[in-house]
Write a structure and sequence with these properties.
Helices cover about 45% and strands about 20% of the residues. By secondary structure, the chain is of the alpha/beta class. Helix 1 links the parallel strand 1 and strand 2. The longest helix has 17 residues.
Amino acid sequence: MKLLLVEDSSSLRRSLRVGLENLGFTVDDTADGAEGLSMALMGDYNLLLLDIMLPSIDGLTLLKAVRKEKQDLRVLILSAKTQPEERVQGLLSGADDYLCKPFSFDELHARLLCLMRRGTLKNDSDIVILGQLELDLQLKTLKATNKMIDLTPNEYKIIECLFTNQNKVVTPEKLSSYIAGQYDAVSKNSIEAHLSSARKKVRAAGSELPIRTKRGFGYVIQDV
């Protein structure tokens, strides 16, 4: 699950990034509104956490521009503006939810889970089932023939990205971004190693990962 955080407070941005990554999200962040707009339009994000008072471009202007291009992106405004009319303006500008600062991290997490259930993902359910495999997008778990598979965080992220992009070729570059974010990179050899390890774990449980390599392009979920 990829998340973009646009927040000009360095301390809050840093603490949110650490907390969200600990929950299994892949997080890109910026303090600048113009950069945030470019990232939101160019990146493949599921969720956007957006401050309103930003340098270069304010959050509401950013939000309106994003909404012209991306209707499915779920947006949660994080703002110190607490007046009812300000919250209404944020929602009418295209936000899916509005959280006033200061807030607890537990409440933020709960609101993100609610937004995910509203259909940010391409699946109508939090469970993706492929043959004997069951991927729980909320619990971040994979079962094979009803046996829990002990995946590393990177193995899980690769499988999640592929399972939620069925019938599409997923490039190594997209997988790298999904695992490490926009500013870091994971090599193709490393991705292959993670996939090989995950395959062995699933095979040991009596099943197979329905992932095949499309040479020269990337990876795709095959029919099961």
